[in-house]
Amino acid sequence: MRGVTSGSRPGGHRKRWTRFILPGYTYLLMLYLVTPILMMILYGFNNIPGDRQSARFYGFTLDWYRRLLENPDLTSAFKASVVIAVLAATISTPLGTLLGLALGRYWFRGRGATNFVIFMAIAVPEIVLGSSLLSMFVQVRAPLGYTTILLAHIGFDTPFVAVVVRARVSGMDQSMEEAAKDLFATPLVAFLRVTLPVIAPGIMAGFMLAFVLSLDDFVITQFVSGQQFTFPLWVYGAIKIGIPPSVNVFGTILFLTGASIAGFGLVRSLFRKEKAF
Question: CATH classification of 72-243, choosing from 3.30.190.20, 1.10.3720.10, 3.40.50.11690, 3.30.499.10?
Answer without folding.
Answer: 1.10.3720.10
